[in-house]
Amino acid sequence: MTPVGIVIPWFGADLKGGAEQQAWQVATRLARRGHPVEVLTTCCRSFTEDWGKNHLPAGLSREGELAVRRFPVERGDRAAFNRVNRRLLALERSDLKSGVSPVSRADAETFLEDNVQSAALLAHLRQHRESYRVFLFLAYLYGPTLKGLPLVADRAYLQLCLHDEAYAYLPQVDHVVRCAKGLLFNSEGEAELAARLYGPAVWSRGLVVGEGVEVGETPGPDPAGRGMGRYVLYLGRRNRT
What we know:
It contains 8 helices and 8 strands, in the order βαβββαααβαβαβααβ. With 241 residues, the chain is of the alpha/beta class. The protein has a single domain (4-76, 110-208), classed as Rossmann fold. It has an 8-stranded mixed beta sheet. α6 links the parallel β6 and β7 (182-185). α2 (78-89) crosses α3. The longest helix has 15 residues, at 18-32. It starts with a strand and ends in a 33-residue tail after the last strand.
């Protein structure tokens, strides 16, 4: 059986980002259920590292139950990227309008061209697209997704991990949302946001798949007879986006 290709800029069990942990959990659990999985990622170690530096060796390796294929990154114009990124981060929510780029066309191109870049990863997608059953791309705002997904759009699913932030309004993001075969959402709220930003057609190609929750062993009865009482469980972060 041909494998599922999971495409993400960084990959590893110890990475703490939401999309990174989701990719790890999806990949490992699919593998445990007998589905062949191959992770396609870069030699850059993590979001917090230099995006133009190859920290890890290139090539195919086994990481636990998974096949992980890493590709070298190239160094972009980091100063230009940071200039545009600061401009995006400085925008207020009231400045953002659906269908309107939050920055100039030139700045949007800079964000794309000086993002995480791996020509070798893109070449692999072009040359070996038929070797994979489907591709799952995470998340929406990095080079491997923005440049890689259109190369395999007819078998590409995009797990956006979408936030109501300036990046989501970039025309390159709108493009990958529209050309993906399917969209996977972590919540109803995320799907509603996507419909507001990219139009109601996302419902016809989208599916709310939810999120897995790790469940530990159930403790035995409390010998003192104390219950947990009433409680509220909040999953999220204290950030309005």
